[in-house]
Amino acid sequence: MKLIIVAILFACVVACFSEKARYDNYRVYSIEVENEQQFEVLKRFESGLDGISFLETPTGIQQKAEIIVPPHKFADISELFETLKIKNQIKIANLQKVIDQEQPQHLERSGFGWKQYYDLTAIYAWLDELLEQYPNVLTNYNYGTSYENRTLRAIKVSHKKGNPTIFIESTIHAREWVTQATATYFLNELLTSSDAEIRQLADNYDWVFVPVVNVDGYAYTHSNDRMWRKTRQPHTDNCIGADPNRNFDFHHAEVGASTNPCAETYAGPKPLSEPEILALTEFIKTFDNIKLYISFHSYSQLLLFPYGHTRRQAPNHSDMMQIARKTREAIAKRYKTDYTVGPIATTIYLASGSSIDWVYGTQDVKLSFTFEFRDKGRHGFILPADQIIPNSLEIVDGLKAMVEEAKALKYL
Predict the structure, then answer these.
(1) Which residues are marked as active site?
(2) Mind listing the pLDDT tens digit for each residue in 155-172?
(3) Any idea which fold 120-226+252-408 has?
(4) What architecture (CATH level 2) is domain 27-93?
(5) pLDDT of residue 50
């Protein structure tokens, strides 16, 4: 407990003396890219021209996208939308206000819970506490180091030898804070819950958690820029980071990824160029019995599965669709949260080089899913902390159903 208190206090001191990017009165627009002219003109904003930037760069036509616009560019962007007949809607009128309301008014100074968001130091301190409390159940892995020399960590929950492995990867995109919160919530449930279904999951499967894949980016969202997405390795003098979920060595940069180093979806100069992704892939290869791979993302309320690089259906498409539908039904029962399910390419857009495609396509893991958590754009990536527990509860409901259906179909 002392480690956690020290970590939280240190984080508060660092935050007080760090200059953070502010988004006062910045708007977030939702737009629809319907034709090539619109796409070509909008592409010039992928480098953050004049402060206008995409939350995720569109990679083709017939896509929805979201764009951040500073106040001094409101008139220009409105004129552009009108000239090119781009359908648009203001999703967030003042981005900084949403950021300011993300955390509770009074932060906890002791312990670790799920009513606020924590930085990497506090998360790692909590993992260390767990390792002391459950030495016979938990295994710690320091599986590599990041570009900025931070430790890459994973935790395995295992009650007996020979269990099939379920692997959960979280926070590969730095600004998706609710993903690490949900991962740590579920990890805690596997250790402490008396719920019979959760105890069955804990006892009969090995669970490997990587709470924060993109450690440098995540740290940067706390110290400098809440909206940062990528890694932190420089690729040109002016452009830092690559999209780690486009950097895997499976159809790398073929479609749905940018070759512009400044773009949010920059795939990197080559596969596995980001040390965090190289280390993660080597770590995954050390397990020979992964039966289910799960990637936590936000937002949009989606449950996705391979493929992303092609609209061609995966060999066991029908099974994955059946599992996804059962999972969606379970998620909806508690709060009526509505998820859309399907393959990446046909459900949202073409996107190559992702983790779930790589695991499915190269590691003989027959079930590979991405959750895109709450919400559908009201808060976007800045999901208020008071939604951590509701989001976690419905995702745990979904995971129970996912494992049950996978078992019924003889995958587990």
Answers:
(1) 372
(2) 999 999 999 999 999 999
(3) Aminopeptidase (3.40.630)
(4) 2-Layer Sandwich (3.30)
(5) 77
Helices (H), 285-374: 317-335, 344-347, 355-362
Q: Tell me the pLDDT tens digit for each residue of 318-347.
A: 999 999 999 999 999 999 999 999 999 999
Provide the 8-state DSSP code for 288. S
Tokens of 98: 């949403």
- pLDDT beyond 70 at 17: no
Position 99, amino acid: I
DSSP assignment of 217-250? HHHHHHHT-TT--S---BSSSS-B---GGG-SSS
pLDDT at 270 over 50: yes
**C-alpha–C-alpha distance, residues 30 and 315, integer Å:** 34
For the chain, domain boundaries: 27-93, 120-226+252-408
From residue 132, how far is each of 74, 125, 139, 180, 232 by CA, in Å? 53, 11, 11, 21, 32
Cα distance between residue 257 and residue 388, in whole Å = 30
